[in-house]
Design a protein that fits this description.
- Helix 3 runs parallel beside helix 4, helix 4 crosses helix 5 and helix 6 packs parallel to helix 8.
- It is globular, with a radius of gyration of 22 Å.
- It is of the alpha/beta class.
- The chain has a 7-stranded parallel beta sheet with strand order 3-4-2-5-6-1-7, with helices on both faces.
- It has 16 helices and 14 strands.
- Bound molecules: adenosine-5'-triphosphate.
- The site of adenosine-5'-triphosphate (ATP) has 22 residues, from helix 4.
């Protein structure tokens, strides 16, 4: 039985890590293509072979010795998995699923590189643990952005296609004002709206068995997000244990202790510092003369950026809007997305980009994490991510975690990708050098005045 005492960090302790398990498990298609479909390579056959090879290589994060059947999943979920085009689990799925599904349920802190299939691991756990005969919320999942919450929901819906699962969002401007009780079993949302709906008793948490934080380090660390996440946790039932599942590609040291408190007695799957980035992403930098030159280079890159799809990360919303307006005025087809846009506009922009209506998306850290669009083969750090964007402080060191998440929008599940960092003075060059050192991977220079070389290097990297 958990104590009701709140400690210095605001936790109610100790939440013993177990919950009840139940039976087997609707709804629109997954917007992520099944593995094997990609614009990056000329034929789907080639991709399938590459993926199979990687899944057979014990050193690959996609490797697995087991089949999905061997993970003990319900038949209806196996159908969903195969319907999505998956054939074998990835390493994180193989390692985490047995631990996640064992009884009594145990908490999990799971780390695995970007694009290696963490979502499926926690979605399958939620879908395995709910009792489909009870029409009450039983699994809550939080993500740092509405775009990611919507993407996770598409995976819940696709994997749960052959179940009776009912789902609902806890994201801004989704539910009608004055909505009554949510009876859906799986709720996916962002911390602010989830807290609000729980406080107003629209969400009754009394039957919740599983609580998932995707991008957990960010959810626990970031200004505001951390407090709200904790509030959600503190509203969970104390009459029975709730399985707490934290997943991310990064768990910086200063968050680890807090994560262990948030998910006590958890099974842990961790990566070494040198394993953090995936090999399929080739990292480059371009030496620009000044801020204005960055814009000129970006425009000259446009033809290459549109070979697949690209995401351009800027520090400020205004920069994203300004670049996007300028490029649009010059006849380029780009879109910009950031947190100052309203909910409906954000949904339309990301959906349009997913459908390939625009090939270039100019954005901020809002979609640095989790977004899975397989056709994205290039990421540009127009501005390098800095620590001061996390806490609005004075810390001008590079934000290694955000860097990893940003470049991880490409190179998904064994695909090839390119990241390009723009540096334009000594300070930004040194910041990039720090990133290089921290990750132990070379960031290769590309000449900005030799377009042919630029093109050649980038095409080679995508082969
Ligand atoms: N076993 C599998 N076989 C084939 N494709 C898979 C498998 N598991 C996941 N995928 C696909 O791999 C892609 C990346 O998965 P996912 O988005 O879960 O990565 P992630 O580890 O959560 O990454 P991030 O850290 O960036 O959030 C998705 O398109 C997903 O559909």
């Amino acid at each position: 039985m958990a104590s009701l005492e709140k400690d210095a960090d605001g936790f109610y302790t100790p939440a013993e890590s177990s919950a009840a398990s139940t039976t087997a498990p609707k709804v629109e298609g997954n917007d992520a293509e099944p593995a094997g479909a990609s614009d990056l390579v000329s034929s789907t056959f080639e991709v399938a072979v590459t993926l199979a090879d990687q899944q057979a290589d014990p050193n690959s994060p996609l490797y697995s010795a087991k089949s999905f059947e061997a993970l003990g999943l319900h038949q209806d979920l196996l159908k969903g998995i195969y319907d999505m085009g998956f054939s074998k689990p990835s390493k994180i799925q193989e390692r985490a699923m047995p631990l996640l599904l064992s009884n009594p349920p145990t908490n999990m802190i799971g780390q695995s590189q970007s694009g290696t299939g963490k979502t499926a691991a926690f979605v399958l756990t939620m879908l395995s643990r709910i009792d489909y005969s009870i029409n009450k919320p039983q699994a809550l999942c939080l993500a740092p952005s509405r775009e990611l919450a919507r993407q996770i929901m598409s995976v819940v819906v696709a994997m749960g296609k052959f179940t009776q699962v009912q789902t609902e969002y806890a994201i801004k401007d989704h539910l009608p004002k004055g909505a009554s009780r949510i009876t859906a079993q799986v709720i996916v949302g962002t911390p602010g709206t989830m807290t609000d709906l729980m406080r107003r008793k629209v969400i009754d948490p009394s039957e919740v068995k599983v609580f998932v934080l995707d991008e957990a380090d960010n959810m626990l660390d970031q200004d505001g997000l951390g407090d709200q996440t904790l509030r959600v946790k503190n509203m969970l039932p104390r009459t029975h244990p709730v399985q707490i599942i934290l997943f991310s590609a990064t768990f910086p040291d200063h968050v680890r202790a807090f994560a262990s408190k948030f998910a006590p007695n958890a099974n842990k799957i961790e990566l070494q510092q040198n394993e953090l980035s995936v090999d399929g992403i080739r990292q480059f930098y371009m030496d620009c003369k000044n801020e204005e030159h960055k814009y000129d280079i970006l425009v000259s890159l446009y033809g290459l950026l549109t070979v697949g799809q690209s995401i351009i990360f800027c520090k400020h919303r205004q920069t994203a809007d300004r670049i996007s307006q300028r490029m649009t005025a010059e006849g380029h087809k780009v879109a910009s997305l950031h947190g100052a846009k309203d909910a409906a506009e954000r949904d339309a922009i990301i959906d349009g980009f997913r459908e390939g209506k625009e090939k270039v998306l100019i954005t901020t850290n809002v979609i640095a994490r989790g977004i899975d669009i397989l056709q994205v083969n290039m990421v540009v750090n127009y501005d390098l991510p800095l620590m001061n964007e996390r806490d609005r402080g004075a810390d001008e060191r590079p934000d290694i975690e955000t860097y990893l998440h940003r470049i991880g929008r490409t190179g998904r599940f064994g695909r090839k990708g390119i990241s390009i960092n723009f540096v334009h003075d000594r300070k930004t060059w040194l910041q990039m050098e720090q990133i290089e050192k921290a990750l132990g991977k070379k960031i290769i220079r590309i000449e900005t005045n030799d377009f042919d070389e630029m093109e050649e290097k980038m095409k080679q990297a995508l082969k």
